[in-house]
Amino acid sequence: xSISRTAEVVRNTSETQIRVAxxxxxTGRQSLNTGVPFLxxxxxxxxxHGLIDLDIEAKGDLHIDAHHTVEDVGITLGQAFAKxxxxxxxxxxxxxxYVPLDExxxxxxxxxxxxxxxxxxxxxxxxxxxxxxxxxxxEFFHGFVNHALxxxxxxxxxxxxxxxxxxxxxxxFGRALRMALELDSxxxxxxxxxxxxx
Length: 198
Hints:
By secondary structure, this protein is α+β, with helices and mostly antiparallel strands.
């Protein structure tokens, strides 16, 4: 019997109104409208490379800047992942990926550990990618790990073009998610931890 690993989360604050729907066993289908075009482009990488169906609608106080919207999308996406993955029975738990894009190379390693933690080492070569402040990349991932309850290590190993640096991070994140969330037929639906819970 197959289980449905889907979730929908709505988050409304005085700064943002966000709805996220995901299917962890999708095909990479996506519908993205955050009001931050570069963020939509990065979320598309997660969907396509993670084979996760992703539907995100966000309205935020973009007249101030994109900070609240990007961070709160990360928070809401993290909540949706936590809900969709459930008790984590049968998942591989760990995932990793190296992804190149021309001169840039990034590595992402994830553990659905139940413990939030982020190591973010991305020496961006400039502060803006078009109209997108690169500082918001770490804010997105902080929001995600704190609410998905995962340990996440992100390292950009080399790169000159900041767009390439960021895109390799999100592509590798999608691939690492795909590996970690894959159901392992040999686990017989057990929880991958000596503690018996995650």
